[in-house]
Amino acid sequence: MIFVDQRKILMIECEWKKEGRVQINPDGQVYPCCYLCNPHYRFLLGFKSNLTHKEHKDEHTQHIWDEYNDNKEKFNINNRSLEEILNDKWFTETLPKSWESEDTALVQCIEHCTVDKKDE
Ligand code: SF4
Predict the structure, then answer these.
(1) Among 1, 65, 97, 117, which is least packed, fewest CB within 10 Å?
(2) b vs e for 56-93, b when ≥16 Cβ sit within 10 Å of the residue's Cβ?
(3) In this structure, which residue's CA is closest to atom 1 in ligand 1?
(4) pLDDT at position 80
(5) 23-66 pLDDT, tens digit each
(6) Interval between CA 6 and ligand 1 midpoint (Å)
């Protein structure tokens, strides 16, 4: 459970993971989805893209992007197989663990993939 809002029980369910999809850019860079790819790609191009949007969340979420950036070459299809990339700690632990709380999740994950468990 990520958070309770009045009578709602909200959780993050990774839409792309559920559908078995990932984003592979023309340069070979692999992302879990387009929602994370787009702001990060602008960031890499040097645009003042805000990766987390909410300043107060930076201290909780910056490590997610730091870890991705530190291993960026390893997440490129030109350097490793897709299977190896998707089995990497960043894809199997770091990102999924961030979905456990609203405080630790990336704002894109909250905005695009929050579901109300009571609606199911
Ligand atoms: S925004 Fe986050 S939770 Fe949603 S599909 Fe992308 S990685 Fe998964």
Answers:
(1) 1
(2) ebeebbeebbebbeeeeeebbbeebeeeebbebebbee
(3) 109
(4) 97
(5) 999 999 999 999 999 888 877 777 765 555 555 466 678 889 99
(6) 24
